[in-house]
Amino acid sequence: MKRTVIKLGGSILVDDRLRQALLEQIVELIQAGQELVLVHGGGRQIARLLERLGIESRFHDGLRITDEATRDVVQMVLSGLVGRNLVAELEAAGVHAVSLAGGDGQSLVATRMAAADGTDLGFVGQITGTSPALIDHLLDGGFTPVVACLAIGRDDHQYYNVNGDQMAAAVAGGVRAERLILVTDVGGVLDEEKRLIETLTPTAIDRLLESGVASGGMRPKLRSCLEALALGVKEIRIVGAAEERVLGRVLSPVGESRAPGTTIVQESGLTGMFPAQEHL
């Protein structure tokens, strides 16, 4: 059976219509025998609570700068509010699910990420080690893992905020998933003319990043696709949540003549571009 990791962005989860449509598809796929791991963000929800608390939201190169106060809010929102609500909705639909953070079972450990230009990102983590044991155990027992974008520090044992797409790539590599689907509020990757790019290779991704055509949150998303390929994930798809039955179409065993979104494929003979994560 092919194991699939699906990443749900926080901007999607605050839209009741989109969230419900996606969860209905996820439930159908699980009940049909698909083995799914869900990774969720929560950027919009985090921003709302930070605003209520009078804490400024700051970003650098598409990543949220996370000081200690922001880290505490991130932890509360992701591991608490968003994860628990998703579990409740899945359970109501008849799917047994468990909300996890990276520190649970040391499934994902991280070190502090350093920005290329030296900007202090605070408690933003880069995944450096994975252990599939807990997620494997849950899947074997018939539970759907719902993973928040939090990893535990290898040395300091504090929680780190991890970009959702980077987290999804690390989870996919760690649990040996064959497929990674990044569900976004856009239909895929766009070129300089704002046209959908149907297929990308690592070389083409490098060009988009170097030219600046890929900007904002798309930059870490594309870097995460490169990481996932290097970790052995065979099939990556960036798709729009609003497309009709998008998950069913992507995961259909029959397939369609024109698949939704952007497909990321490996170039023949390309070796890993990122250091392999340590398996704990």
Can you put this structure into words, describing what you see?
The structure is a single chain. The chain has 280 residues and is of the alpha/beta class. The protein has one domain (3-279): Acetylglutamate kinase-like (Carbamate kinase, 3-Layer(aba) Sandwich), CATH 3.40.1160. The chain has helices at residues 10-13, 16-31, 43-53, 68-92, 133-140, 164-174, 202-211, 218-230, 246-251, and strands at 3-8, 35-40, 59-60, 63-64, 97-100, 108-112, 125-130, 144-148, 150-153, 159-161, 179-184, 199-200, 235-240, 262-264, 278-279. The strands form 3 sheets. Strands 5-8-2-1-11-13-14-12 form an 8-stranded mixed sheet, with helices on both faces. Strands 10-9-6-7-15 form a 5-stranded mixed sheet. The longest helix is centred in the N-terminal third of the chain and has 25 residues, at 68-92. The two termini are 24 Å apart. Residues 269-276 have low confidence and may be disordered.
- Broad structural category: alpha/beta
Strand order of the largest sheet: 5-8-2-1-11-13-14-12
Gross CATH architecture: 3-Layer(aba) Sandwich
Number of domains: 1
CATH level-3 fold name: Carbamate kinase
Largest sheet report: 8 strands, mixed
Number of continuous helical runs: 9
Distance between the termini: 24 Å
CATH superfamily: Acetylglutamate kinase-like
